User: What shape does this take?
Amino acid sequence: MLHAKGVNKTYKNKVQALKNIDLDLCKGEFAVLLGLSGAGKSTLLRCINGLVPIDSGDIIFENQSVLERNKLTRLRKDIGMIFQQFNIIKRLSVLENVLCGRLAYNSSIPSSLRLFPKEEVEWALTCIEKVGLEDKALTRSDQLSGGQQQRVGIARALAQKPKLILADEPVASLDPYSSEEIMELLHKINALENITLLMSLHQVDLAKKYGKRIIGLKGGHIVFDQLTPEVTRDD
Ligand code: ADP
Ligand code: ADP
Assistant: This one.
């Protein structure tokens, strides 16, 4: 479903964040990008959904290249993104956050001018239920714990009906207990909703416990790419 070939990315400050990256991802995979801070994980995820433009090579998702800029909106609809800092609007309720994410891809009419159609609200509530926040739909997001706020981020991604979810260090801001809960939830989403997952992590233990495949990044290079049982600590 995803095919990256010879991808290079150098930022304006001359930092070469990605060096000749080749990566193929099949439907249904749960793959982890594992690497230290600065390895290029975040850059790679951002390049895949077109948030960061690549310098050379190509990334093809479901037969569409990220180089075709005019198709980016369509591409981003099929690719959901989850962030380390959740990126939700804290003064809005859970339901409003989930609806906002969906509307962003839905119409050329500014969202502020639209009423929320009943089906949109029902679908948003279904997604909120999928992440276990059905009791909190009308609660302001800033009253939630970190783990719950990340659940809002996940519900917002799900509401898009994505084929692929990219998660950039989704548990790096969370305590160990909440981290496991979020990883369990992502595992469930991958298994039950048949949504392909590519996530970055810096914790080897979590990567080995939940990832089916581990892709090691170091200094902008892929240094290994193996199914999880074959990965040793030395990798
Ligand atoms: P532009 O010239 O397009 O504005 P910049 O290089 O100034 O791009 O950076 C864009 C964004 O990336 C800014 O928000 C900046 O803070 C952030 N940024 C810049 N350098 C780094 C870095 N080394 N690591 C992470 N983020 C960075
Ligand atoms: P990771 O997600 O593995 O921590 P990043 O992709 O954030 O790695 O960063 C890879 C390299 O690119 C680092 O050296 C980082 O400082 C640099 N970098 C990241 N974002 C920017 C940016 N916007 N502008 C300049 N340099 C950046």
